[in-house]
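Entry for nicotinamide-adenine-dinucleotide complex. Fields follow.
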Amino acid sequence: MSILVTGGAGFIGSNFVLDWLAISNEAVINIDKLTYAGNLENLASLAGNEQHLFVRGDIGDAALITRLLAQHKPRAVVNFAAESHVDRSIHGPEDFIQTNIVGTFHLLEAARAYWNALEGEEKDNFRFLHVSTDEVYGSLSKTDPAFSETNRYEPNSPYSASKAASDHLVRAYHHTYGLPVVTTNCSNNYGPYHFPEKLIPLCILNALAGKPLPIYGDGQQVRDWLYVKDHCSAIRRVLEAGQLGEVYNVGGWNEKANLDVVRELCAILDELQPRADGQPYHTQITYVKDRAGHDRRYAIDATKLEKELGWKPSETFETGIRKTVQWYLDNQPWVTNVSSGAYQDWVNKQYTT
Ligand code: NAD
Ligand code: TYD
């Protein structure tokens, strides 16, 4: 048996594939376009593993997906592939529309045709799991209750709007065609292999390089942070026991203001790798222009997933962020390779204008 994973060379997808193959003997067909965010080095430890088949390709390439489904007959599709960075979606939304909306549509079409042709148990057991974000629900005030699965969709960025559209398509394919889908909407992830355009890895790398730690606006925007391996365990659980057509919010019960997140990782760095001049890393914090349309607060109510499927995160923010900082310190070659080329072009564009 096998599963087909899309976007499995990205941050969350690669963690998912690595964890999956560590605990299961079911093969993974991993299809990824290898955009700037896809990195085969994340999967280097799988070299020679016959349970992992990597295929470079686009989820929008219906012919390729159709061929892979026919050839490998996976029992599930887990869709991570997406353009995922809000700031990039502000600079140029088109790729987000292409991959997150049009790409998901083609993937759904291919999955529908494949599922329609299945019979018996194979048909009954097939799942299409769509990985999405809490950002589709919009922004909360300080006192609003956390997002539940019944919150209205109010996406505010081109990224979240494109993810919202993909969620709607997935829902429609269940209601209209009966495709056996489940959707997860997760909060902000952090952990190993996180591309350093996002807040946490960017600040770890900048801190170590003696560069400014850029805080947008007043730094009081709140996000709910979940260690990536807890997100992966939630996806495995939903794949295993999620009810068809249902949506599950995934979160860590770890609401933090951005400034506090950065101060916390600075304090861990002070302990693990103090600056040569003895100064604390937080002195590198610099306030920069705010993000356009910056959502003020996200918070996830993960009660449904906990109560109905018995899932719980195993890391607190304090344990997860320490592991993450340590991982970046221990994996300098990965950091060096990922911080060149296209990454430098992005940093120049985003932080020097
Ligand atoms: P990422 O940007 O690190 O990885 C995305 C991967 O998808 C990359 O490997 C990229 O090459 C691949 N990809 C992009 N376009 C593709 C296409 N057209 N066809 C095939 N592959 C393509 O993103 P991530 O942080 O790992 O996020 C994975 C998924 O989880 C996304 O759907 C994202 O919306 C969702 N999500 C992310 C977070 C988070 O905090 N990072 C939180 C909740 C949900
Ligand atoms: P990010 O990691 O881009 O995730 P998202 O926008 O999906 O939540 O950003 C997390 C928060 O950190 C968000 O409120 C924007 C803020 N931020 C900064 O203050 N400075 C930065 O350089 C970056 C990349 C993000």
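NOTE: The mean pLDDT is 97.
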